[in-house]
């Protein structure tokens, strides 16, 4: 995620980091060249058809329907994903407090908290399709087919053992089982978002309509706007292809693009929160590097 | 569901799989032919009335209202259906952990987990109106009038027996009964979506307005656009009829269209998740065939 | 509710059942006649003022704001009502399972289930302002001022008696009381929707703007469109008055219009679901009559 | 709240009660006069600038953004407020049933129910900033700084005493404490809506843009529309100023405007629902006076 | 937060306090000057290109997509933040009542309530990045790396001690642990909003498009509107830059801008609510200063 303050005037003109400019520059150049050719052709030959604004508005309706819908849907996915990770962080903190209230055996408590951090890291690595490291949180479950589920099973097993050892009573077992179910639900929600992309057909419709819109723009402008047409085309291509690109990134919130969620940073925040409950020193929070928080 | 990566330039131009092109090609051809006839007639006779853009915009307002609303409503149905199946998967995983924490008798535990998989498959087959197989999960309940309800009744009966045998205490009975109620709610939500289609009158309004819009387009364009009119008509028909088609598919998320939900794959994921709790080997996850996940 | 498959080409042209055509035909005819008069007057006299499209667009903005908002709000009411009835069905199924797990006395169980069906039918009849029958579910509570509340009170009384007889323990009493509270909440939600219509002022604004829009249309079209104007007026009146009519019906989801919810059918589904728990034969599900499900 | 059936043709033309016409008539008259002056000036002098529709559309975009947003936000506040009062009604009904199931002492039960009605009335009067009466529900708490909180504290105290007297066990105490927390949450939600108005800056933007739009309309119309301009201006001012007025009323759902919520009627409904549990005769429901329900 | 009544006619014309005018005045002046130069240049030379409205509408589509989306997203953040603080206030009130019902030891009760106020203030100061004071609520936790978490840990520790001293039973421990988890969730939600700004790329797109729109406006207007062009440009710049500014402020609801949430006032409301439970006199509620509530 890009962490920057609100842009000042100079940044509005020049900011590239955090912008989608790099990704869409090739397309913008192509559409600018096409616009130049159209203007040149129009000046030299009578072959270029002119679109009136009524005909062109037809595409505007389609484009705003598709882009508007896709932008909302993609942002909702991104924000729902963020909510679920925020929910996981809240669950881990509550879990740490609740084991202290309900579980009498301290070794059992530390085991459960450590396993819950294993779960969080395994969940993060599975979502991002990262290779599992050999050491550190989550490493013990890297060989499992479903590492996050396996880690949560281990927490649940520890709870089951605590119950049979009577170091937790019925009230505590119920409360902690509900807490694990809440983590499990957040995990399943994240997997749902990761495994159910926006229907592919919308991507096709959005990209096809955006391209068509940019392609036809010179025909609609050339008569009145003349040699300003290529500049216009570049700006419009930046706007619409840029938005299409942003929505593509936001709709995959667990990827590693600039707009993906800062899962590393959230995992670190969970470690910091659980440290006092485990009697270990808290690590430092992650800081953004070049405005980017991983 | 179609599983494809984001389209590159070549796919934007050519992708058919995952597109709605096949379904709407006949209509597009008809509208193109009509546009050709209108242009020809306009060149040869003075009979063709010309629509000014103001008159035509009137339909644009109606069309964007109807298509925009229906698209949002259809996508919400699809996504709500997906959420409920994601919730069912989460419930089954939590159920498996909670029976381990709260139920002492292992045979009873395996019976309950196996019955819950019966429930999931029966629910899937009932939603898709599939014939029940003779063996496999869900088969035992195929003869019931309401197979999914019958299977969930069986899980609940097993819980009741466990309670009378005292292999589960009051806390466990309460926690597990709440878990079953959650599954039951997700099931009822899916049935609601399946049994309450979008009001039929919207389908009529959307299709009638889209058709009218495409039908009148040549009259609005012919004067200025000439022989480009049929190409325009084809592109516009693709955009709007395509969107109407997509929303039709998405609004029936449990069907077997290309955009329907991958229920087989989710059921398999549940089997994989429950396998370690039942001490049986986990099956392989389902893989998409030709980008299609059933 | 109208239950029809997706319309094919022929139905798009001709479907009347499930359409709003019958309700809006008189208004359409009036606007067509007005349009004819305007064209005739315009041909014979120079008295008819011509509206340019800029002036006319002003009404388009208002109309799309009002219709778009009202359509969303009405559909949300309809869908929220449907969700609450789906929730009631789920609650009754869970209630039936939970009394089996937690209540030992079978006579008490059957009494509670039978009373819960009384509640559902009383709630349905109260929402639809139907007279109560002399026999059948709900009949016993027809003389009460608030039949649905009285029936739910009776279920709660049965639970209280079961608790004092010790045929249900504390866990069961808590679980079942929560279930009754959930039914009670769904009931209150339905009453809220029934008793709080959309603010009347929106109806006025929508109908007044739609009428004005259709009334002024001939003045905007007559100059360019000539004798096609009445046809246009008819189509546009169908679109906008039709949508206004649909939103009126959907915003009263418990009425008896074609787009109202199929409460009879949902009550029957509840009877079918509870039959095995009451050891009585299940009735047949309701089937749509002429595409209409009551 | 205005309770009227759907408007028929005659009412569409004439309804004033439930309309916003009275509030906006002065502004409409002003804009009509301005439009008359502009037309007269345009006929007599060449001084009046003419706006082309492109320039005017710029304001249309702004206006539809501001009005559309504010309308949705205001309606959401109104509907959320209604949901919370519906939730309070449901909570009081469930509370009455649950005290019967869980509290053994009848005097204690009646005390708790009576105090809960005190709470509801105190909450209503605090929200509407009404003076507290000397007798009747809520009167005992009128001298408190936060009457609704004080009344709910009293219910909670009664529960605490019941617990120490052992007339309610742990299960009952937990269930009833959750019920009180639910009432408390609905109360806090209503206070949030009452104390956090829509950001003032939106009111400024909406009113300023609406005024500007109506003010400039004659300049955009005068050239083509001539003496119809004042009529147009009046109709457009009615549409947009009327909507701005409606959203102002809806965004203050606890006020005493025509579109405010019928809190008196809901409090009365709660009294009716609790009467059988308190063994007192139920009062009559409130009826609308002149279509207005207070 | 600005607390003002609805603006009357005079305020609509003149209100500055609560308006965004001060922030956007420099930009408005720049665009007005540019517009003056364009008109002058157009009168003196033939060099100024004229944009037709079709070309200009292209930017209108982009602008309304970006501004509309960002406005909704920013308001949703603001309102969600407000809901969470409303939820915290409700939680503290319920917490105070529940400790009275479930905790027998009065000293323990007062300790828990006092610590919960520490938590609320620490949470407020952490969100606003304020320095911690030396005395008063929250001061004791100022040296912690995560003060709000530390304070909530302290409440939880007190609950744990009460449980080991048997001054709270299993039911009470469960109920109070759930209450603390609810506070913890609201805290995590606020931190999520504070730490996950709207994607930076939207800010760039909105500001760049708004600037471009205002910059090109004179070219679209100059031909028809002449010397009214600078006035138009100023008004349009006020509308769109003002909205961009408002959404920037609303999207940071915990800042100290005029539209930020009144956290001081909510904390004070919590102190007032808890005072009777702690047997201390209640402080005065905060009053707005110059329409501003901190």
TrEMBL record, chains A, B, C, D, E:
Record field: transmembrane: 20-41, 53-69, 200-221, 227-246
Top-rank taxon: Bacteria
Protein's membrane topology: Multi-pass membrane protein
Location relative to the cell: Cell membrane
Main location as per UniProt: membrane
Keyword flag Transmembrane helix: yes
Family per record: Belongs to the anion channel-forming bestrophin (TC 1.A.46) family.
The name this protein goes by in its record: Bestrophin
Organism field: Pseudogemmobacter faecipullorum
Organism lineage: Bacteria, Pseudomonadati, Pseudomonadota, Alphaproteobacteria, Rhodobacterales
